[in-house]
Write a structure and sequence with these properties.
The complex is a heterohexamer of chains A (93), B (117), C (492), D (130), E (188) and F (140). Chain A is mostly helical and 93 residues long. Chain A contains 3 helices and no strands. Chain A has one domain. In chain A, helix 2 runs antiparallel to helix 3. Chain A is flat and about 45 Å long. The termini of chain A are far apart. Chain B has a single domain, classed as Helix Hairpins (Orthogonal Bundle), CATH 1.10.287. The longest helix of chain B is centred in the last third of the chain and has 32 residues. The radius of gyration of chain B is 19 Å and the shape is elongated. Chain C has 492 residues and is mostly helical. Chain C has a domain of 214 residues. Chain C is 77% helix and 2% strand. Chain C starts with a helix and ends in a 6-residue tail after the last helix. Classes of the chains: A mainly alpha (93), B mainly alpha (117), C mainly alpha (492), D mainly alpha (130), E mainly alpha (188), F mainly alpha (140). The interface between C and E is large, with 52 and 41 residues.
């Protein structure tokens, strides 16, 4: 059962990589990376369960967090061309 | 098992060489820095593999576990990761300044502007 | 307090750097930097005295004994290097004040001095430590500080030179890391003395040999051995004068020291020169490097660049001494490490003074310097004579020992090469001297460099002559260091 | 990796309880959702349809999966942490999917239609950059 | 144990594929994102190799901070790598092949992967594992080695970070932009 | 990111928890994976999210660069200060055993304080790095 779960996650990860490499638009890549991130979180929890260590779940949480931040950063970069920009309201500029 | 171990190391070397090739052959400065990161990360893998013990738990003491993997490489690599990100930050800062003062981050263009670079 | 001397050398700049970075204006951080480098210098001198009294000093960080914790292990070789680094730092820091104000500006001065202190800290830490991985950490501290300082040059090419040094330096550091990893996996230890004990039994292992190859290559990237020197000329040329003086005199020397430590102490003479024919690699590279770099430096229109190429040549002399693999050769190499540091710092400082007044260091700026800036120019001339190896200067002492070492081995062609190198040095220094004495300056009013630059400069010039006449101090220490290193350096 | 891993998970347990079966079902359901989403990511014709496949399955897949694991861990700190991770993903995954879709729409990426499929394929990186 | 090897090998293959893709890709923005995937995958690999702390750091630093800094850089320098005619570069390939060959020679005599009897596992490390609870009373051995046994390395690490901050502040810190810079950047 | 209202709301909601998690990692580093370095990075990512969502200027109103520089330097000084303190109390540099009457207690104090120093430096430097990079990217 656990083997099947691990296999499924790995297959999903490899498909996400294929999509990230193929593109064609940049949004596809971002989407693939997002999916890859969530699958990584699942893989880490799986490893934690295999090792029987609750500590490792902290790491999964970090992954989820980093995934979210990277996502925002990519979007921000993509829409505004700079990371420090406040947005269209021009607040604080 | 040993065959699998060698397979591990062979891939690490492949990654290392891919990173090194990226550093040496790319003309784009950002790409060079990505290459450096790939190169360094593969060295980190190598270190961690040196400390890996089959069936050994992560080096956090727990009830009923007797076999732990070697904590020393982990400590070294923690330091090395920090060094890596520090180098990356300085390299990227330099890249920004190069773009601002030369208008390009392609080594070919820079070389054309000034053959001594 | 005296038992803490090894760590105090490193600790003083470590505590001072953050403090200096937070200060305002240019004066306060300068005072801090100067005082701290003087303090470190005093500590290193005391340390040298202690080493000659008591032999090897071992200091365990955190109280954890050697293979488990990190230890500082001071013998003659690193004590000598520490004196060189901190001594030059304590001369360059006072000198830096005017040139930094001129080239960097007050606004960025605090951080600039902090970076200088971090550079000194990294170099001292690398030198003093007895742990192979700790070397890597401090190597990276000094490298990061160097990248920053190099980028501070006014010319925009300073940025690209800094970037290419960053790439090369990181590759070098990572190579070193790979090598240390291979040693670690074979021995299970990172401590240099412990490694030295355990490695001889493993000399057949392909992994240890590969580790050796990677460590040597990585360090050679850092010390700019001939085919790997491409980062150096630009880096030195475009950096601010104070930085060039400190870097040119110390950074590559520390890399040489690490090479010596690895080759002689960790791997041992037996492994490095018999099992692995290190001489067959180093000596030809050194000879080619010496001749080519000297020839290239003759053609340089910029004097700073000329001296940078000459640095590559001088490093080749040092590598030549190491490549001989004998006690005499090693003595000569260590002597030249020290002496070249002293003379190159003087030369770069003189150039800094020229650039301060004339606005550049091209050959045309040197025209008529004997009349317009006589004190600076004479300092340059004496430094140049030292570089050539004229008797009564430090340069002569080390070259003489190098020639003696070559003759001991019966390597007559090498003696000829050394002499040819000196003749080439006569030519490139001669161009500058000719310009200074015989060319007409554009404006022949006398405008000597300010005392703030001249006094440190002349202190170094006098050291050049004094150490050239009274050779007991340096030669004795270098011989003792070489003897320790040849014996494997493991003195428990 | 620790040898003291969870016996049931590795299939070495001697008895299967109801909870084990339940957790197995949850795990398998979660994983099959994940694979379905990934297949959709590969096979669907354009960005929006792929996003439909991936974004919709993602959270539920993670939820089921974590639920399965949490049953294995029992009522411990680990299950609480799993719940936290799940909550975090429950908030972030749909948010980022939404933001991404919105960004794509603003970026001028046209949805694929059966007739105008060419438009989606012309949507190369240069076009998306604007 | 088979499962771990399966995960291990799959992650390694992912890494190899990603590194090749990184070499070939021209769009720097995509390259940075794929580098993010690379970091995440490598962090998972660290997890499989039982190095939780390293995985933690690699995820936070490699995938988080590095990626964001690279994106910030790209927002200034532009995201397209110039498409130059692909010259066949002999020298880099030669250097890389030689280095790789030396490394392949070097791994011949490596002690067996994952064996508890390796020199690295029997010499210094056992003291940390056995004595750390007695000497420092910290359950996480990595922390006790990091902070106490090799605390000096960690001090160096903190100084490295400080140096990086200082360096970046010196290089791109806030100050008045000189007009000459703009002139220089305008002639292209 | 004004037009991404949902992102803003969710992000703002998450920031305190991210920082709380950073603190957890900081003080839980003795018992599980984590420690000053990781905690610093996570704590800094709180500021990263804020900067990304609300712009650099808003972040600068919360923490100024000068303040971050002070924190960054003080982290190094705290770490080195522990070493100096142990030297003054008769041990070697960074020998925590002498910091308290009992070596174990000394080790606890030492590790706690230096991890705190690491956390301070890393969190402030990472935030500072992002702010400096973002500053350059803003149209001047």
């Amino acid at each position: 059962m656990i083997v099947a779960a691990a296999l499924a996650i790995l297959v999903a990860m490899s498909m996400a990589i294929v999509r990230a490499l193929l593109g064609p638009t940049i949004y596809d890549r971002i989407l693939a990376i997002n999916l890859f991130g969530t699958k990584t979180v699942m893989l880490i929890t799986l490893i934690a369960a295999l090792a029987g260590r609750a500590d490792y779940l902290d790491i999964a949480l970090v992954y989820a967090m980093i995934n979210f931040i990277a996502m925002i950063a990519v979007l921000k970069f993509f829409e505004y061309g700079s990371l420090g920009h406040a947005g269209s309201d021009g607040q604080g500029e | 098992m040993s065959g699998l171990g060698i397979w591990n190391y062979v891939i690490f070397i492949f990654l290392m060489m891919a990173g090194l090739y990226m550093v040496i052959s790319s003309t784009n400065l950002v790409k060079k820095i990505i290459g450096l990161n790939v190169f360094q990360t593969s060295v980190f893998f190598m270190y961690i593999s040196f400390g890996y013990i089959d069936g050994g738990a992560g080096p956090v003491l727990a009830e009923g576990v007797t076999l732990y993997s070697n904590p020393l490489p982990h400590v070294l690599i923690l330091t090395a990761i920090v060094v890596g990100v520090a180098t990356t930050a300085v390299g990227l800062a330099l890249t920004i300044r190069i773009k601002e003062s030369f208008g390009s981050i392609e080594e070919d263009d820079l070389h054309k502007m000034d053959p001594s670079i | 307090m005296l038992t803490h001397l090894p760590v105090l050398v490193v600790l003083a700049p470590l505590l001072a750097a953050p403090v200096a970075a937070l200060m305002r204006g240019a004066f306060a951080p300068w005072v801090v930097a100067t005082l701290v480098s003087w303090f470190s210098f005093v500590c290193s001198l005391l340390l040298l005295a202690q080493v000659s009294d008591q032999g090897v000093i071992v200091y365990s960080m955190g109280g954890w004994e050697a293979p488990w914790g990190i230890e500082y292990r001071i013998d003659f070789a690193n004590a000598l290097l520490l004196v060189l680094i901190t001594g030059l730092a304590s001369i360059v820091m006072p000198y830096a004040r005017l040139s930094v104000r001129h080239e960097i500006g007050d606004e960025r001065s605090p951080m600039f001095y902090a970076a200088m202190l971090l550079l000194v800290l990294g170099l001292c830490g690398m030198t003093a430590t007895g742990d192979a991985f700790n070397i890597f950490v401090f190597l990276e501290i000094s490298s990061l500080a160097t990248y920053t300082l190099l980028a501070m040059g006014k010319d925009r090419r300073a940025l690209t030179s800094s970037f290419s040094y960053l790439v090369m330096g990181t590759i070098g550091g990572t190579f070193y890391l790979i090598g240390v990893g291979f040693l670690y996996v074979m021995t299970g230890t990172l401590n240099i003395a412990d490694l030295a004990e355990r490695l001889p039994a493993l000399s057949d292992s392909a992994t240890v040999r590969t580790g050796f190859a990677f460590i040597v290559t990585g360090i050679c990237l850092k010390l700019a051995l001939f085919p790997l020197h491409l980062w150096l000329p630009n880096a030195y040329t475009f950096a601010p004068s104070a930085v060039t003086a400190l870097l040119g005199a110390t950074a590559t020397k520390v890399a040489v020291y690490i090479l010596v430590r690895m080759v002689f102490t960790v791997f041992g003479v037996e492994f490095s020169f018999v099992t692995i024919p290190l001489s067959d690699v180093l000596v030809p590279l050194a000879i080619v490097g010496l001749l080519s770099a000297s020839s290239v430096s003759i053609m340089q229109p910029n004097v700073k660049r000329m001296l940078a190429y000459s640095s590559v040549a001088q490093i080749s002399y040092i590598i030549l001494g190491i490549g001989m693999g004998t006690a005499m050769g090693l003595t000569a190499a260590l002597l030249h490490v020290f002496n070249h540091g002293v003379m190159k710092a003087a030369l770069f400082m003189a150039l800094g003074a020229v650039s301060y007044r004339m606005g550049g260091t091209d050959l045309k700026h040197m025209n008529g310097l004997a009349r317009t800036m006589p004190l600076t120019f004479w300092a340059f001339v004496i430094g140049g004579l030292s570089l050539i190896g004229v008797p009564l200067t430090v340069g002569f002492v080390s070259k003489w020992h190098l020639i003696l070492a070559a003759m001991e081995l019966g390597w007559w062609p090498v003696v000829v090469v050394i002499l040819v190198g000196s003749i080439l040095a006569v030519i490139y220094i001669g161009r500058v001297v000719e310009a200074g004495f015989f060319k007409e300056p554009e404006d022949s009013t006398r405008r000597e460099a300010p005392a703030g630059l001249l006094i440190p400069l002349w202190i170094l010039v006098i050291a050049n002559i004094w150490l050239g006449i009274d050779t007991r101090l340096t030669v004795d220490i270098a011989e003792a260091a070489a003897a320790q290193l040849m014996a494997g350096g493991v003195v428990r | 990796m620790a040898v003291s891993g969870m016996l049931v998970l590795t299939g070495k347990g001697n008895k299967m309880t109801v909870l084990d079966i339940l957790s197995g079902i949850l795990l398998l359901a979660g994983c099959s959702l994940g694979v379905i989403g990934a297949i959709g990511l590969i096979r669907f014709p354009d960005f929006y349809t792929r996003m439909h496949a991936a974004g919709v399955t993602d959270t539920l897949c993670a939820g089921l999966f974590f639920g399965g694991l949490a049953i294995q861990f029992g009522l411990t700190l680990a299950s609480a942490k799993l719940l936290l991770i799940f909550l975090f993903m429950l908030f972030t995954c749909p948010t980022s999917s939404h933001a991404l879709a919105k960004a794509a729409r603003h970026g001028g990426l046209e949805p694929w239609t059966k007739t105008g499929s060419g438009a989606a394929h012309n949507m190369s990186q240069e076009g998306a950059k604007s | 144990m088979v499962l771990e090897h399966l995960i291990d090998i799959s992650l390694l293959v992912f890494l190899a594929v990603i590194s090749v893709a990184l070499l070939r890709i021209k769009d720097l923005f995509a390259a940075v994102m794929i580098f993010g995937i690379y970091s995440l995958t490598s962090a998972s690999l660290f997890m499989v190799l039982a190095a939780a702390d390293v995985a933690f750091t690699e995820a936070a630093v490699g995938a988080g901070i590095s990626t964001i800094l690279m994106l910030a850089t790209l927002s200034i320098t532009g995201r397209e790598e110039k498409t130059i005619e692909r010259k066949f570069k002999l020298l880099p390939l030669l250097i890389v092949s030689i280095t790789g060959a030396v490394l392949l020679y070097g791994i011949r005599d490596l002690p067996p992967f994952g064996d508890a009897g390796n020199p690295a596992q029997v010499h210094v490390a056992p003291r940390y594992i056995e004595q750390s609870p007695v000497e420092t009373d910290v359950p996480n051995i990595v922390t006790s080695v990091l902070a106490s046994y090799r605390g000096f390395d960690t001090l160096g690490e903190v100084v490295v970070i400080f140096t990086a901050g200082l360096g970046v502040a010196l290089i791109i810190g806030r100050r008045r932009r000189l007009p000459s810079k703009k002139e220089a950047s305008s002639h292209e | 990111m004004n037009d991404h209202l949902i992102l803003r709301v969710v992000g703002k909601f998450l920031i305190p928890y991210v920082m709380l998690f950073g603190l957890y990692v900081q003080f839980h580093g003795d018992f599980g994976p984590g420690g000053g370095f990781q905690a610093g990075v996570i704590f800094a990512s709180g500021f990263v999210i804020y900067t990304l969502l609300f712009g650099l200027r808003s972040t600068q109103q919360i923490v100024s660069e000068g303040f971050l520089r002070v924190i960054s330097a003080s982290g190094v000084l705290i770490y080195a200060g522990v070493g100096v303190a142990s030297m003054l109390m008769g041990g070697e540099f960074l020998n925590y055993n002498v910091l308290a009457a009992n070596p174990i207690a000394g080790q606890h104090i030492g590790i706690m304080v230096i991890e705190f120093g690491v956390g301070l430096t890393v969190a402030s430097t990472m935030t500072l790095l992002l702010m400096m990079f973002a500053e350059r990217g803003l149209p001047s």
